[in-house]
Amino acid sequence: DYVNLRKLAVDAAFKSGDYAKAIFHQQRLLEALKRQGNDGLLPEALYQLGILYSRAEDYPNAVQYLKAANKIWSDTDELDRLAEGQATLGVVSENSGDYSDALKNFDASFKLYDEMGEMADVAKQNRRIGRIYYLRLNRYQQAREHFQAALSQYQEVEDEVGQIET
Fold first, then answer.
1. Contact yes or no for 66/90 (Cβ under 8 A)
2. Can you tell me the distance from the alpha carbon of 26 to that of 19, in angstroms, rounded to the nearest whole number?
3. Dihedral sign (CA 2, 4, 7, 11)
4. Do 45 and 66 touch, CB atoms closer than 8 A?
5. Which one is predicted more confidently, 18 or 38?
6. Which of 5, 15, 106, 111 shows the smallest number of beta carbons within 10 Å?
7. What per-residue confidence (pLDDT) applies to 127?
8. Count of alpha carbons within 13 angstroms of residue 11, beta-carbon side
9. Which of 53, 5, 55 is nearest to 32 (CA)?
């Protein structure tokens, strides 16, 4: 059907690195989902469009679509998707040079993962926050605190790769 064909077109364009074409097909997919009233797939389609804009380094559009997906996940209490969406928004904000917004998004993701008891993801957000303080803001004491917290959390969940990276 039309939706599945569009998904295949998006995937093919994405894998070939043609982000403009992937965005084109993802926008048509999003329009089709809206016409069909398929609200269940809508936030994921918005999220994917945000990812595609991010890959194309069109950060304002990426942020717009990621925030739209996060709003739906927030309204429907899909905390796991919201936590991932906030983390992705943090990555996009960091890549665009908006470190303050990146910290806010990583912190929001951290809190959601903490609430859900997802300690590996809590550690990952701590590490991301530490990275911004260290690499972007030269605030070494705050970086150290977040890296130490991440290391402790990775040790708690016995994630050796996370420990080594931290």
1. no
2. 10
3. negative
4. no
5. 18
6. 15
7. 97
8. 6
9. 5
Contact between 114 and 129 under an 8 Å Cβ cutoff? The reply is no
- The percentage of the chain sitting over the pLDDT mark of 70, rounded to a whole number, equals 100
Q: Is the pLDDT of residue 1 over 90?
A: no
Q: Retrieve residue 104's tokens.
A: 């806010």
Radius of gyration of the chain (CA): 17
HEC per residue, the chain = CHHHHHHHHHHHHHHCCCHHHHHHHHHHHHHHHHHHCCCCCHHHHHHHHHHHHHHCCCHHHHHHHHHHHHHHHHHCCCHHHHHHHHHHHHHHHHHCCCHHHHHHHHHHHHHHHHHHCCHHHHHHHHHHHHHHHHHHCCCHHHHHHHHHHHHHHHHHCCCHHHHHHC
Query: What's CA 12's distance to the chain center, in Å?
Result: 22
Q: What distance lies between CA 89 and its chain's CA centroid?
A: 5
List Cβ<8 Å contacts ≥24 apart for 7-12: 10/48, 10/52
- Using a 10 angstrom Cβ sphere, with 0-12 exposed, 13-18 middle and 19 or more buried, the burial of residue 27 is middle
Q: Say which residues have a Cβ less than 8 Å from residue 159's Cβ, sequence separation at least 6.
A: 120, 123
* Gap between the Cα atoms of 122 and 114, Å rounded: 6
